[in-house]
Design a protein that fits this description.
alpha+beta; four-stranded mixed beta sheet; 6 helices
């Protein structure tokens, strides 16, 4: 007797892969019935092209409402999970974390999940660079603001008591007009004062004796466990001490700035250079400006606008560049190529310096 197999069944999200049996030979959708029972097995193949949609909503900078910021349309398998996505300066709300973990792709392609992200808050502090006149306006207290918030900077008179105010600068933040857009990091906003002079003469830096530091050839930076280097993150006093101690310098780090919790954490450009100069044994009076000393040694050259920003926090990349200059360490052509930081592209401005710091010489 010839047995004709049933038509292929259908099931949303799956493709029928055919019938099979070890009790008979199937050919052209049928088989000859033997003198014994025949057990047929149907196989299903999971489809990987089931569409789903994820909408990402960001908390507004100015209020507690949320606005659609991004939409992802993907394809996956029935019962599959929604891919996780992160945004700089945002943290997914607890309810969205739960929804993301529990949402599975539906077989009919109708899956739509809406995820919500709150803006992280960062500390914005203010400081004057240099000696500010006694009549200079009092600066605002350090305050936590949402990422991307617009902060109106204090209005400062252009001249006060024979000194001129040059304007505001911000570490990592963008200033447009008199408005700071809060970046995804704690930010110090610095106002610069300069003495008004009839002649316009600038005092020359006091010469100091040249210093040659002996490089012990150690790799003094190793990055983080997640494969990142975080070049634009602020340097902590702890990490400065680790870097310099790996190079064989005796280090007693200065106290860093205070974060939102009051914990001593980040260090300024002035404090970093003070520690480096002290560890290097530079002979100078304690009252000497470490910025001027470092410039005289060729360790720093300032910003393109001619400013030093001594009270700004120093980044990890900036610190590596300065240390390399102090030790006259440069990137060689035979550096190990297996050192890769996932957040450090080769066109990053301090890539060569960071690679030199990461290698053994």
């Amino acid at each position: 007797m010839i047995i004709v197999l049933a038509d292929a069944p259908t099931l949303p999200g799956y493709d029928f892969d055919g019938w099979s049996t070890s009790d008979a030979t199937i050919a052209d959708g049928s088989f000859t019935m033997p003198d014994a029972a025949v057990v047929l097995t149907g196989a299903w193949a999971t489809r990987t092209d089931i569409p789903y949609t994820v909408e990402y909503y960001w908390q507004n900078a100015a209020d507690d409402d949320y606005t659609l910021a991004d939409t992802f349309r993907g394809k996956g398998s029935v019962g599959g999970s929604i891919p996780h996505k992160e945004f700089e300066g945002f943290t997914e709300t607890p309810d969205s974390v739960t929804a993301e973990g529990s949402t599975k792709i539906k077989s009919d392609g109708s899956t739509l999940v809406k995820l919500y992200y709150d803006r992280d808050r960062y500390l914005v502090s203010f400081a004057y660079y240099g000696t500010a006149p006694n009549a200079a306006p009092t600066l605002p207290e350090s305050t936590l603001y949402r990422f991307g918030a617009s902060v109106t900077l204090p209005a400062i008179p252009s001249t006060v008591s024979g000194m001129s105010f040059s304007g505001w600068t911000a570490d990592g933040g963008k200033i447009s007009g008199n408005i700071l857009s809060v970046p995804a990091q704690d930010t110090r906003v610095t106002g610069t004062w300069k003495q008004i002079s009839d002649s316009g003469d600038v005092p020359e830096a006091t010469p100091i004796e040249a210093v040659t530091l002996e490089d012990n050839g150690s790799a003094y930076v190793i990055g983080y466990e997640d494969g990142t280097f975080r070049p634009d993150a602020y340097l902590t006093a702890k990490h400065e001490a680790l870097m310099l101690s790996r190079l064989g310098l005796p280090v007693t780090p200065l106290s860093g700035g205070a974060d939102a919790l009051g914990t001593k954490r980040y260090i300024t450009r002035r404090d970093f250079l003070h520690t480096l100069l002290h560890a290097a044994g530079v002979a100078a009076e304690s009252a000497a400006d470490p910025m001027a000393q470092a410039a005289a040694l060729g360790w720093i050259s300032g910003y393109t606008n001619g400013e030093w920003y001594p009270n700004a926090y120093i980044t990890r990349a900036q610190a590596v560049v300065i240390i390399n200059r102090a030790f006259d360490r440069v990137a060689a052509l035979d550096l190990k190529t297996d050192i890769i930081y996932v957040d450090l592209p080769q066109d990053y401005w301090a890539y060569d310096a960071i690679m030199a710091a990461s290698n053994i010489f």
